[in-house]
Queue: 4 jobs
Job 1
Amino acid sequence: MLLEITRSTCPCCHADDDGINGRYACALCNWVNHWPEGHTGDPSSTHRNAHLDHAVGAVHR
């Protein structure tokens, strides 16, 4: 997946925010936008769970 640095204005405190693929987290007021508001689709839960299973398996070995 290609990562794109995007810019926006925080809707809460109006600070300039930089994000990745349209996903933002404001360092000044802690606002974050919801995943579906980004420019790319939500990864499937299977994809997320596979990464979690791999990480947990590495810890327990």
Note: Residues 5-60 form one domain.
Job 2
Amino acid sequence: MTRLARRVPVVFAAVAATAVVATAATAATAATLAAEESADPGSEVNVAGPVATEKFVSVNDALDALREKYSGFAGASNDLQTMTTTVRWKGTVPNELRKLERSGLNGITVTALPAAYSQEAINLAADAAIHAPGAEGTPDRSGLIVEVTESAVARLRRSAISHDVKQAIAAAEPQLETIPVTIRQAEPTRPAIAKPVAQ
């Protein structure tokens, strides 16, 4: 197992293909779902009960097992409204995941889509990024989004920041020197993306 092995990142949202990736363990996943399900009755995410929560946890467990067994996992998102899970995978999709696509799991429809970079590669690039309090993969895992502070943007042009970030990634992880990097200024009203933490 690599030094950056993690539990399966799964995002729970009312709309599929949510951009942000969470790295919660299965227990935390269940708590997140439970919190969303107890939202205001008029909210879009208030569409499933405890049974649906358990179903998504079982899908998360199945994906976790695949991540431990095979390389290439690049993230997943769950849609409570449509009861679907979308999985991103770099390279050859394991037969077990194809089987989940064909038959689903506990009423959850599973779809596997290609990714240019695995979650491990995204994490390595994010760890190497400079000027960046936060970084994450793009929703389709085709590159890296680097979130920088307003002060960094004030001191440096975005092109200069992008150049510095790419150089830092290339120096630390030469195999990722061509990963596309998008610079985004952090909104003052919300905290910057948290960098992945090795577990």
Note: The CA atoms of residues 110 and 184 lie 31 Å apart.
Job 3
Amino acid sequence: MMVFKAGEQYPLADTRGKQGFFFDYSEDNIAKLTCCFPNMTKRESDLILEEHGTVGLFMYQGVIFFTAKFGPVDGDAAYHIGMHEHPEQITVENPPDGTGMPLYIFAVDSATNILIGTRLCGLGTRFTRDFRKMTEEQRRMTFDEPTFIQSVMECQNRWTTKDLHRMATTYKLGTKEGEHPLDVLEFPH
């Protein structure tokens, strides 16, 4: 079991020197969004961890761009199953109606790699099915890392994060009454 505690080092990656949003999906049907800002302010972390917000999916030349907007804080992250060591193990389950995959959101101060807080949201049926369709499309393509990087650079040079979020199919993130950011989060891994 992996444990994430606010105020401690972020265990998934060394984020020092990085800024932006990083999205990943693992073979255990878990989506993770890491939001990194050096010297993250309380306002930034509060928006990421408490704002209802929206997430989006946009595909460009075989690359999935995951976008997120929490009030004025927004970001995008490129994703391809071919980046995994064992892409054949990455499958997105087709969810029953009314369900979807979990999204773990991490707010990290990338000046220190300290986890500020976490949040768990449910991504709905429509998002999960759309993401599944996109990853299956990626599976049918040949993955080449230099081409992937070139496509990401082209896309980011052509459009801003706001443009990508506007062009993406978007999905609302809600917070149920009583839901609060988590100081400790555990999930099997």
Note: Residues 2-172 form one domain.
Job 4
Amino acid sequence: MPFTEKDLDAWLYEARPVAGCRTCEEEWERRRKALAERDGWGAFAASQAIRRHPGHSGCR
């Protein structure tokens, strides 16, 4: 089965914010706005920040 652009988008923008985490909430809002503005780089950066911020558990 070939890899599609849709698969890549799902992987790049995947993020699981933790409820009650201020960093997650701020980055999730930044991600939402970027997606609404069709800003792929901004959405990716916000998703990555959710996945990578220090002390974050519950992300891949």
Note: The chain has one domain: 5-52.
